[in-house]
Design a protein that fits this description.
16-stranded antiparallel beta sheet; 777 residues; 14-stranded mixed beta sheet
């Protein structure tokens, strides 16, 4: 066994094996998704002894070339006086080293936009590449599983990110000798059988844990619930209209705000293809000067995907054209960047010495073109509105549903309204800065893709400067308005300086004074209500099997999911199923001590994340568990003998695919239990298209948006509670037709709709459609 140290003095790795103190032989600790640690003592026993330096590279290996540890000293050695020797005082230098990933720990993670629809291995690989480009060979990192979204918080260390991504994907990383791997937990399997000739009975410790759960409630985050539409009418004076519910709003607001400082684009934000050297950053602007003339050949792309969900505002920038240009600005693409593949963007074409800017939708120019004027600036904005806040369910794992086959992860279908607008600013006319933007396109993209590539620039031949680019996760509300006798148009929501007409807060819709709604102008506000995501799932078969005498067999638990985050009730259901996968009965933890010569399954080494199949019939145990920690104590350097302590546990004893958090949740609403075999088949489709079609002083006409199920109907209530055939206290009525009329009892009035079928008991929608009207009587 050889200990080598590179003191970073230009001499490379030096053999320190002969200096190892026999009383302080190497000890290595490996923990799941954490940097390994090695401690060893060396003695200055020769005249040429060099004291290991802080940050020195340390390698412990066998004669065969097998590495036991590679890493770096975390600090200068601790010096210990041992006494007087033949050459004078003798000192021992106690060394503490962490694994190779320590070089990443010492760097601050970049401020990145959230990873969207990225594979876990890809995300972790990217974080390592950001911190130390080319430092690690990452070819052995598997993609493992898709993360719906992961926010790389710059306040966390690389190791904290690695641990969290490992939990969400039920995967394990390892860094050794400059190579990094990432693989599903349990990818390597060893067998520990008490009938093996090298098995040491005294070395095996097994501890049973009563982990049975057959009635679990999972509490998640604040989720989008009711599909709300508020109806108002203008009177020529009123600027503020109070919303019937608090809109659900995603936590993030500004995803990024790029002002093009410095001399190059930020590689953690932008990916550039520029064979003609047309793209440069200068004078605080992104300068585009030319292109190859080919579609899709010169591009500036955002490195992450855009989720077509909720309300998103893409301000492509304040653009100033210096000559006639051809290309696409602010394009969203379902695949490769090309004009034909552009779902929505701004097509720029040459018009003499100027340029035309026109909406580009589904690869074709649409609507009126705006011709540029020399010296003017053009703020191009894309607004996306979807009633679905998330386009992909979260994925949850268990031992029965490991990485690659987790529960959940389904796509969420949605239509998306796309609004393309242009704000023409004349620097010589200050009034144009607050003038209304011109809408080039306002339409609905049916069954829109979940995610899109965003290319700020697709330049065939372009001469322009872009002052800024901003991506905003806006208040998830869509405002539509119609003047008397005219069709509805989407109102521009945002800041007045951005050419917007109104803004939406947590409680009200506010119009700017210049855009006060005219008398009898109809206004609609579409958004989602909010509430606590939760679900309760039971396993009646398990309950019955464990019922004895006065014991009813119920083993209940309440878990608050932290990671992966349970963002919706459907996520909570899948999380509950994953929990019950593992918590089906007795779970085990344990440890096994043995010599390196007799590792289970003739293994050369054992690492956290490996699976250990334990067959110990004499102890009533036959189990598959995951190694959580490995302690290695070197006992014989020359003979390369080490003492291994392998600690393992099953998921239900120590959760691998979950991180739970404690915390009081006040006024947790009651939730109806679902049988585990029925999850996913309990609710009907929500009435997302329900609308009020006419209002009189005494009636409200409603269109549910879809015909009711055979044998069922549309149930309408004054408040969002009491759903079901047995409660009539707040019931407006049950209707067997798609359209119907309900009474109007006040100027401001709400009603809630769900559809139900003819089954026994009837199934209902998961979320209500909430319709609120505030018209004068």
């Amino acid at each position: 066994m050889k200990l080598q140290i590179d003191n970073l003095d230009g001499n490379g790795l030096i053999d320190y094996t002969a200096t190892i103190d026999g009383a302080k032989l190497p000890q290595i600790t490996r923990k799941l998704n954490q940097a390994p640690e090695m401690r060893v003592g060396v003695v200055a026993n020769t005249a040429g002894f060099v004291v290991p330096a802080d940050g020195a590279r340390v390698v412990l290996s066998k004669a065969s070339g097998q590495f036991l540890f590679t890493g770096y000293l975390t600090a200068a050695p601790a010096v210990q006086y041992l006494g007087w020797g033949e050459r004078g005082p003798v000192y021992r230098y106690n060394l503490t080293a962490l694994g190779d990933e320590m070089v990443l720990e010492r760097k601050r993670p970049a401020d990145r936009a959230p990873f969207v629809n990225r594979n876990a291995g890809n995300a972790l690989r990217q974080l390592a590449q950001d911190l130390k480009p080319g430092m690690f060979d990452t070819s052995g990192m598997q993609d493992v599983d898709v993360l719906a979204e992961y926010v790389p918080d710059a306040q966390k260390t690389w190791a904290q990110h690695a641990a969290e991504i490992g939990v969400q994907a039920r995967a394990v990383y390892r860094a050794m000798n400059g190579a990094m791997t990432f693989a599903p937990v349990g990818a390597t399997v060893y067998t520990l059988n008490e009938t093996d000739e090298n098995f040491w009975p005294e070395g095996l410790t097994l501890d049973p844990v009563d982990a049975l759960i057959n009635d679990v409630t999972v509490v998640g985050e604040i989720e989008p619930e009711a599909y709300v539409t508020d109806y108002f009418v203008g009177d020529g004076l009123t600027l503020r209209f109070y919303l019937s519910q608090t809109p659900f709003t995603k936590t993030s607001t500004t995803v990024f705000d790029e002002e093009y400082l410095g001399t190059a684009l930020d590689a953690t934000r932008w990916s550039v293809v520029d064979p003609g050297s047309a793209v440069l950053v200068s004078g605080g602007k992104l300068q585009i000067a030319g292109g190859t003339g080919a579609d899709g050949a010169t591009t500036v792309e955002f490195v992450e995907l855009i989720e077509m969900a909720g309300a998103t505002v893409l301000e492509h920038g304040d653009v100033e054209f210096s000559a006639a240009s051809t290309g696409v600005l602010g394009g969203l693409y379902a695949g490769a960047v090309s004009v034909a593949g552009c779902l929505a963007g701004f097509q720029v074409t040459a018009n003499g010495g100027q340029s035309n800017i026109q909406a580009l939708v589904n690869g074709a120019a649409s609507g009126t073109a705006v011709t540029t004027t020399t010296g003017h600036h053009y703020v191009l904005t894309t607004r996306l509105y979807s009633q679905e806040i998330y386009r992909r369910q979260q994925t949850f794992h268990s031992a029965a549903h490991p990485a690659g086959s987790g529960r959940g992860g389904a796509a969420v279908a949605a239509d998306v309204r796309v609004v393309l607008e242009i704000h023409d600013i004349d620097p010589a006319d200050p009034a144009t800065r607050v003038a209304a933007a011109t809408v080039l396109y306002d339409g609905v993209m049916t069954n829109a893709p979940q995610y899109c590539t965003y290319a700020l620039v697709n330049a065939a031949s372009m001469q322009c400067a872009i002052a800024f680019t901003e991506l905003i996760a806006a208040v998830d509300a869509e405002v539509r308005s119609a003047l008397p006798g005219q069709s509805y148009q989407t109102m521009l929501v945002g800041n007045l300086s951005e050419g917007a007409e109104c803004n939406v807060t947590s409680s009200e819709l506010e119009f700017f004074s210049a855009y006060a709604p005219a008398p009898n102008q109809l206004i609609e506000v579409h958004y989602r209500g909010s509430g606590r995501a939760q679900a309760r799932v039971t396993n009646p078969v398990s309950v019955t099997a464990h019922a004895h005498g006065t014991d009813d067999g119920v083993r209940s638990a309440l878990r608050r999911a932290k990671s992966p985050a349970a963002r919706t009730a459907a996520d909570c259901e899948n999380a509950a199923l994953a929990i019950m996968d593992d918590a089906a009965g007795m779970a085990w933890t344990g440890a096994y001590e043995t010599w390196s010569d007799f590792l289970p399954g003739a293994a050369q080494d054992v690492f956290p994340g490996d699976e250990l199949q334990v067959n110990a019939a004499s102890r009533g145990a036959a189990l598959a568990a995951i190694v959580r920690e490995v302690d290695i104590a070197v006992k014989d350097l020359a003979g390369e003998h080490s003492r291994y302590t392998i600690r393992f546990a099953q998921d239900a004893a120590k959760w691998l695919g979950f991180e739970f958090e404690a915390g009081e949740i006040a006024n947790l609403p009651e939730v109806t239990a679902q049988i585990n075999t029925q999850v996913g088949n309990v609710f009907l489709v929500d009435l997302t298209a329900a609308a009020i079609t006419q209002v009189t002083s005494t009636t409200v006409s409603v269109d549910a948006g879809t015909a009711p199920p055979q044998g069922g109907g549309i149930e309408v209530r004054w408040s969002d509670e009491g759903w079901g055939p047995d409660n009539d206290r707040n019931l407006v009525g049950r209707f067997a037709t798609r359209t119907f009329t309900i009474p109007r009892l006040s100027a401001a009035q709400s009603c809630f709709l769900q559809q139900y079928d003819g089954s026994t008991p009837p199934k209902y929608s998961r979320y209500s459609a909430a319709l609120y009207v505030d018209y004068p009587l």
